[in-house]
Structure formats: structure tokens, C-alpha cells
Write a structure and sequence with these properties.
By secondary structure, the protein is α/β, with parallel strands linked by helices. It has helices at about 15, 25-35, 60-75, 95-115, 135-145, 160-165, 170-175, 200-205, 225-239; strands at about 10, 40, 80, 120-125, 150-155, 180-185, 215. Helix 4 (about 95-115) links the parallel strand 3 and strand 4. The structure holds L-Erythrulose and manganese (II) ion.
């Protein structure tokens, strides 16, 4: 990927927590000698550790978050993405007050553990098929504004925005609350293969004062062929 010209890679938190062959030191060695830094880590919390509702185990969550932040810091990560649609799904019947309280408690805990490492936690809006709360960028921004922690911020993923009918234009107002962006083209395919308007996205992010990174998160059909096209498409829009 660095040969193609990308600036960074994005891994899953699961990869850091359960490295291939179970060996974190081997993963660390591979990442430290790779040409591309691993800037972001997504899918923060596994479905087995619910964040909201009576099944929530705060001690187990704290243990996981503490270890994840420490490992991700050693791997050079700067951003951890809380999509985790299954883990954050609110159980049916739970009041909205309790739901909000548990979510806020988790974000506070995560922000506190990430802060000493200079890591930012970003709350990702996901479409309604993936979870039952925080579907819009405006929802995520409201949460992080209320929480008011410097290192807990919001993310915009163009795929979920399209699924939920949220226009890129909202980013002109909300861009300053974001610390990470995921992009994909039509049907979540590689940038440059569909008709997504990256010029408009760039205009809106710039107008909103966005200054974070942008990851391609898509279904690759032919990675070797599509990876350079995706980068060229984005660089063209941002040139
Ligand atoms: C994660 O970043 C995401 O966008 C989800 O759709 C993955 O399930
Ligand atoms: Mn995403």
C-alpha cells in the first residue's frame, strides 16, 4: 500500500487483541518494520462485551479497553473507532435514559484510558441495519458535545451516511467535531468505481474545518487494480 502512495493503514482492534498466531510481539515487530504506519483501529469492542444494558460488565470492559489502548499505543495507533454495532446495541425495553447513561459511561472510560497515550476515541454513526442507536453524524456529534472530552470525538462514514440519507452538506457544520472519516463509493465499492461526489465531500469537510485522516473502507473486488484508482480519486478531489 505504501508503494501505491497511501499514508497509513487501518486495522481492527481485534487484530491487536488476538494477533495471528496469538503472538503480539510478532505483530509489533511486523508493524514496526512495515513502511506504512497503522494510524487507526476500528471495531473497538467485540459483541461478547455489551456496552449497554443489564448484561454489561464494566470491570471486563475496563480490562479490555485498558489492554487495547496499551497495545494500540505500542503499535503506533492514534485513533480508535467505536462502531461496534452489536456491542453497543441497546436491549429492547431499556429506557433511553439508561441507554444514554451506559453509553456515556463507556465513552468516559474509553476516553480516560486512551488519553495518556494521546489516542482519540471516535464514535461512528452506523446505519440502522447494524445497530439501534446513533445512526447519523449529527447524533454522534450531539453525544460527543454533551460528553465534552477532548479525546472523544465523532466519525463520518460516507457509506452509512448514504444508507441513512444524510447529505455530505451536514459536514460543513459538523466537520470540526470529527477526528476520522471512512469513505467508499456507490454500494460500498472502491472510490472511483461509482458516482460518489468526492469534490462535494472535500468542500463540506473543508468548510467544516475538518483536519483528520481519511480511510478507504470498502468492498474491494480487485484490490491490486482498485487500490491505486481509489487513491487517485481521493487525491484528485483533495488537490
Ligand atoms: C466500521 O467502520 C463500519 O463502518 C461498519 O460498517 C463495519 O461493520
Ligand atoms: Mn466505517
Amino acid at each position: 500500500m505504501s508503494d501505491v502512495g497511501y499514508d497509513f493503514a487501518e486495522f481492527t482492534v481485534g487484530l491487536a487483541m488476538n494477533p495471528p498466531q496469538g503472538d503480539f510481539e510478532a505483530l509489533l515487530e511486523a508493524v514496526s518494520t512495515a513502511k506504512l504506519p497503522v494510524y487507526a483501529f476500528n471495531s473497538f469492542i467485540p459483541p461478547s462485551l455489551p456496552l449497554i444494558g443489564p448484561a454489561r460488565d464494566l470491570k471486563a470492559l475496563e480490562k479490555y479497553v485498558k489492554e487495547a489502548c496499551s497495545r494500540i499505543a505500542r503499535l503506533g495507533g492514534r485513533v480508535i473507532v467505536l462502531g461496534s454495532g452489536a456491542a453497543r446495541r441497546a436491549p429492547e425495553g431499556l429506557s433511553s435514559e439508561e441507554t444514554r447513561k451506559h453509553l456515556m459511561e463507556f465513552l468516559t472510560l474509553a476516553g480516560q484510558h486512551a488519553s495518556p497515550y494521546g489516542i482519540t476515541i471516535v464514535l461512528e454513526p452506523l446505519n440502522k441495519k447494524e445497530t439501534n442507536l446513533i445512526h447519523l453524524v449529527s447524533d454522534a456529534v450531539r453525544v460527543v458535545q454533551e460528553l465534552n472530552m477532548d479525546n472523544v470525538r465523532a466519525l463520518a462514514d460516507t457509506y452509512h451516511m448514504e444508507m441513512e440519507g444524510e447529505s455530505p452538506e451536514v459536514l460543513a457544520d459538523l466537520g470540526a467535531f470529527l477526528s476520522h472519516v471512512h469513505v467508499a463509493d456507490t454500494d460500498r465499492r472502491a472510490p472511483g468505481t461509482g458516482d460518489y461526489d468526492y469534490d462535494l465531500l472535500r468542500e463540506c469537510l473543508e468548510a467544516g474545518g475538518y483536519s483528520g485522516g481519511i480511510s478507504v473502507e470498502c468492498k474491494w473486488e480487485d484490490f491490486k487494480a482498485e487500490a491505486p484508482i481509489a487513491l487517485r480519486t481521493l487525491r484528485q478531489a483533495w488537490s
